[in-house]
Amino acid sequence: MPASRSRFRPPPGSPRRARRLLPGLAAAAVALAVAFLVHRLVPVLPAMTLAVVLGVLTANLPWAGAFTAGRGRPGLDFAGKHLMRGGIVVLGLKVSVMDVLGLGWLALVLITGVVAASFGGTYLISRLFRLPPVTALLVATGFSICGASAIGAMAAVRRIKHVDTVLPVALVTLCGTLAIGALPLLIHPLQLTAPVFGAWTGASVHDVGQVVATAQTAGTAALGIAVVVKLTRVLLLAPVVAIAGAHQRLARQPDDSPESGQARPPVIPLFVLGFIAMVGLRSTGWLSDGWLEAGAVLQDILLGAALFGLGSAVRIRALLLTGGRALLAALASWLLIAVLGLGAAVLIAG
C-alpha cells in the first residue's frame, strides 16, 4: 500500500497538484518581473536572456539552490515544459507570411539554405566533439532556428527528457549573448552597411530578443531587415519539427508499438499546429496593433517563465565538469553560422 501511494501522481488540475506547482511558478513570476525591470533600465539586455541568467544564478546560490532542487522543482519543471509550448504557439503571432514573401525568392532560398547548412553543420560538429546524439540534435535545432523555443519544440516532438534540454539551452543562451557584444564590433572592420548588418544578425543570431538587441545598435534600417530575416527562420520551425516527428514515428522502438500501450508520437504536436494557426491569423491582417502587442507581452511572459525554469536546473559545477566539449562545439558552431549568415546577408542586402 505505501509503495502504490508513493507512485501516485495527482491528476492535472487537482488542488494537490496546484499546491505543488505554486512555489516554483511564483518564483518564476518574481524572476520574470526582475528580468523585465532590468531590461527596461538596460534595453540592450534582452529580457529572455536575463530570465535564463536569473535561473542559473538562483540554482547556484546556496540559499536558493535548495529551493529550486526541492519545493520549487515541480513548478519550475512545469514552466520549462508546458509554458514553453504555450509561448511557442503565441510566437506565431510575430510571423507574417506577407513580410516573409516580401524578402523575395532569392532571400528565402538563401535563408533556408543557411538554416539547413547550420543544422547539419552544427549536428556534425557536436558529434565530432563526442556529444550524445540527443544533445547534438537539440543544439543544432536551437542554433539554426530560434534558440530555446526551437529546443523546446524539438524536445517535445522527439519525447526528449526535460533534463536533457538544460545544457543546449545554456549553450544557445551563452552564444546568443556573446553575439550581442561581438557582432556590432565587426561593423566597421568588415565595412558593413546597415541593411547587410541587419540581415547578418537576423540570419545568424539565435533568439528573437537577441536579434533585436544586436541589430538596433546599427539603427532602424538594420533592425527592420533583421527582424524579418529572423522571423523567416522562425517560420521554418514548423517544417523542421514536422520532419522530426515523422522520423520519430518511422524509427520508433518495438516498445512503442500499439501492443505496448504507449501512444505513437504525433507527426505534428498540437502546439506546433497552434503556432501555424497563429502565423495564419497574423498573416490575414485582421489583428489590430493592440492585439499584436498583447500577444507579444503574453509570449514574453510564457517564454520568460519557461526559460527561468530551464535555467534553474543548470548546476554550474556539473556544467564545468561535463560541458567542456559542449562549449567548444557550441563556439565552433557559432562561428560556422556567423560565416554562413554573413555570406547570405551580403547576397540579400549587399
What does this structure look like?
- The protein is built from 18 helices and no strands.
- Helix 3 runs parallel beside helix 16, helix 7 runs antiparallel to helix 8 (133-144) and helix 7 (105-128) packs antiparallel against helix 18 (324-349).
- The longest helix is centred in the N-terminal third of the chain and has 27 residues, at 15-41.
- It has 350 residues and is an all-alpha fold.
- It has helices at residues 2-6, 15-41, 47-60, 62-69, 73-91, 97-101, 105-128, 133-144, 148-157, 166-182, 194-204, 208-215, 220-235, 237-250, 270-284, 289-311, 316-322, 324-349.
**Could you give the count of β-strands?**
0
Termini separation (Å)? 71 Å
The major β-sheet equals: none
Q: State the helicity in percent bands.
A: over 70%
Write the element-wise H/E pattern from the N-terminal end onward. Answer: HHHHHHHHHHHHHHHHHH
Tell me, rounded to a whole number, the average pLDDT.
Answer: 88
Q: Which stretches of 5+ consecutive residues score pLDDT under 50?
A: 1-8, 254-261
Approximate strand percentage: under 5%
What's the helix count?
A: 18
3D shape:
globular
Structural class: mainly alpha
Rg over CA atoms, rounded to whole Å, is 20 Å
